[in-house]
Amino acid sequence: MKKEDKTAVIKQIATIIGKYSHFYLTDIATLNAGGTSSLRRECYKEEIKLVVVKNALFKKALEQLDRDYSALNPALKGNTAVMFSNNANSPAKLIKFFSKGTDIPKLKAAYVQEGFYIGAENLDILVSIKSKYELIADVIALLQSPAKNVISALQSGGQTIHGVLKTLGER
Description:
171 residues; alpha+beta; Alpha-Beta Plaits; five-stranded antiparallel β-sheet; 6 helices
C-alpha cells in the first residue's frame, strides 16, 4: 500500500472514531462467510458500524486523536474488527448474543464511556452498562414516582372522606 493511501485510510479511521463515542475491538477471523454477513446485518439493525482494520493503521489513527489510547495497544494484535456505536452496551449485547454457541466474535478490548476494558472477561460488565436512553427512562421513572404517590394518596383520601360523609349522612 502506498504511503498516500495509508495516510488517507488513517484519516478515514480517525474521522470514524470521532463520529462515535464508543468502540469495541473484536476478533471475527474464524467466522465463516454466512456468520460474517449475519453479524453485519445485526450490526446494521443496531446502528453499529463494523469495520475490519489493520492494527498498525488503527494505532496511528488513535495517535492522531487528542486522547491517549495507548491502553488498547496490547489488544491490537492478530485480526481486528472494530464495532463503533453511540450506544454504550449495544455492541456488547450483540457480541454476547453471537458468541453463545461459539466463542466468536471474541471481545479483545473496548473504549466505553471514557474507560478502557481489556479482555473478554469484561463482556458481562459491558453488557450491564446502561445506555443513555435507559438512564433517561430510569430518571423519568424516579421523577414520576413521588407524583404518582401524591395522586394516589389524594384519590384514596377522597374516597375515605366520601365514605365518612356518606355514613354520617345516613345516621
